[in-house]
Amino acid sequence: MAEGLAKKYMKNCIIKSAGTHPEPINPFAIEVMKEIDIDLSNHHSKSISDKEMQNIDIVITLCGDAKEQCVILNNSLKKKIHWNINDPAKASGNNEKLLTIFRKTRDHIEKEIKSLIGDLN
Question: What CATH number is given for 2-113 in this structure?
């Protein structure tokens, strides 16, 4: 969700998303992003290599222990940010409850991205 939202709002930036433990894109994420006209159906979870880290200016970690697990070896990294956002994929409940949780997470990420844009300008 973060990649889709970042690409929507930060069109002049190269946005890449990766996970510490890549998994298939959650169908609830696809559904709630579709509600705001962002299509994640062709996205796939990726891991990031040290080589890819060489040209990154900002790293944003989102959930749980990603902050500690995301070891940044790039000395030229300009900024590292952590947004403490609960992983909606770890929630439980019926479909409506899960959709609500994913929507709240989507909206939280969107708010953080808009705030980041303000900070960068």
Answer: 3.40.50.2300
